[in-house]
User: Fold these one by one.
Assistant:
Number 1:
Amino acid sequence: MKIKYSFIIPVYNREKYIDRCLNSILKQKIFNIPFEVIIVDDGSIDETEKHIRNYLSPHIHYLKIKHSGPYIARKIGIENAKGEYILFVDSDDYITEEYLKIIDQNIKDYDILEFGFYSKDAKKNFLPYDTDSSIYLKHLVSSRYKGYGVSLCIRAFQSNLFKKFLLENYHYYYAEDLMLLVHAYQHAKKVGNIKQVLYHIYPSDNSLTRSQFDERRFSAIEIEEKILQILKEYNQHYDMKKEIMYSKSFILKGVLVLSSHLYLNNYKVYIKNKNRLKTYVHQYSSFAAFYYLSWKMKIGYFIYIISPTLFVFIFKHYILLRKIHHEK
């Protein structure tokens, strides 16, 4: 029987979470819907592999690679996928029991199907926004600004959307989800959405404050710049002015956050790139871009312009206060 759905799960040191993730897939309330699960282990050094091997079967495949980052793991998963549709699941997260059933009932007419998700960190549900444009890249950027996530995991994809992307020589260590999404939305003929929560995002110890910070983090800013350039090209034929401002505000926000975390987690890299970070801020500053920042980021922006050191000092204590609050 031809495989209809390919679940792709990149995993790295997730011995605490991988059982919950895989069990949520195996508990799907479906009948006669052929699917496969492709687990790509990005060089785990804990007990992740031992847990995974308990689940292996003819339709659950395990590939272990040298630690190369999440983009390479996803790419290998896509290359090995045989399904008509691709479903990404992060190993920290889990899906509802009716996830596959509901997707299968709705995806027939779409290249991309968006659905709702629950974020345990935010403690609330997020639902996709209806598109008011046939320019789906415009829809992606505006939905992102309104708060609907950029994760690959809250969407189902026609597998052919990624074939051309795999031929291009991209290699991003961070924010790879975003570049894959932009490519998919550029080439999608029809995008739909479901106003139901099918996916649960669970915060883990892979958060921004705990993960490695080095110069590879700048790839996230470079991706934002690439998206901005794509939007400018679209603007020659479609009205993308608002989306361009959204994009510039994302760059400003990214630089402010990156500055703070580099300062706190890798001071040598921060000092080495201090002028580079300042250049980004001045290059993308404008009243319109500033307007689309959150009020917290607006305050942070003004402080950064006055003194980057003061900004980082305040950010450090803000993070500390949040940590104390969560521990209460």
Number 2:
Amino acid sequence: MNSESAKVQLNVRVRKETAQLLEEVVEYYQENTKYGKVHKGEVLTDIIEKSHKIMEKQKLMTRRKY
């Protein structure tokens, strides 16, 4: 198994409301992507990767101002 496909299990506690929001997001992904069945881990990975890209862009923009 290469490092790209290596997975780590995260056991986290979230509020019930947050878990429900995740269910809604997963449902949205399933209905609006061409992949069909989508798992929570895949949705969380997508959200985290997109958020990280946005964060990196914001950090670059902040550095350019000075």
Number 3:
Amino acid sequence: GGQGSVHKAEFGGETVCLKKFLLVGVGAQSARDKIVSNFKKEVGIMDKLRKHPRTVDFVGICTTDASFLGIVTQYLPNGSLRGVLDDARGDAITPKTQIIWAKDIAIGMAYLHKEGVLHRDLKSQNVLLTHEWRCKITDFGISKSEALKTIATTSTMHGGAGISGTFPFTAPEAFSSRTRFTAKCDVYSYAIVLWEIWDRGKPWDGLDPMQIMHAVGMDQARPKVPDLMPVEVRALMCRAWSHDTAARPDFEDIVTQL
């Protein structure tokens, strides 16, 4: 993960997922203590959102090792949507499955927004697949946290993927440090995930972050619409990635349309 390393672990006799946020290099003990305190507070968000069929189940936190903070969630053996899109045979993903995935993600995001939580890092790597190949959103609440942003920066310096993996999913207005992140930024990210589901490729593959910022922000460019995408999904996607934030639908609307 861009904000930390992800590990398979055991808890209470069950396999779980452990995401570690490094505490090395964050300064004095008082600074660490503040981060741990904020971390616990922010994880309260995830605890509140503990059970929903379209979000990954939150199990708890791990603070026993002084070198890292850990978030423990359910383990989903089928991995991420991105991994499935990369690995599946051409005909293995049916049109019906594509619509189910699109709706699953929209339902999960509608729930988060209804609860007042912005995801801030919605992308195919942060959508996991259940045994029944249904989508669950993960890493919600984490990017919202100022405490975790501090740790994310540290983790990135120690070899994490950093923000570059997120750039292709970032709304044009979110590239500006003067602009507040809004629910409509998540909607833009969702549009790019829709594009992935039907195109199977990686958005803006081959471009570096600065080139993506210029293409999306200045030129108002968008990825080429996939040929096999249904007309109604195409229209929805194009509204969702509109440069005009007011033109983007909210997730309740998206669920209704799908």
Number 4:
Amino acid sequence: MLFGHADDGLNAPITPHDWIYEQGGRIGFDTFGYDLELPDPPFWGRKRAERMQHFVTLVKKGYADKLLVSADANCSPLGWPGVKGHTINYIFEDMIPDMRAAGIDDATLKLLLEDNPAGFLSLDA
């Protein structure tokens, strides 16, 4: 099970992260790039630093093995044309540097960006 959009400005305060994790579910932080600081953000956007702090809190709780990250850029090959921040590049240009700055190490980044997606897509527990 994947609980998607667990990081957006509407779901984040009420998402039962602990329960999802305890049931073996995956927690999708998949709205990276929908930052309130960017032009024309969606109403459910979130401040970039707030989203990252939320993410780091879950990593520190030991949930890294069940976190999936994405920019939710599925509407065209490179995201939504004309929407700053909402592209696949955002993960590499902004999100990963933010994670490193927050103290997330390379082994955890590998888990988040390679191992977790591979396990999820292969339906491996």
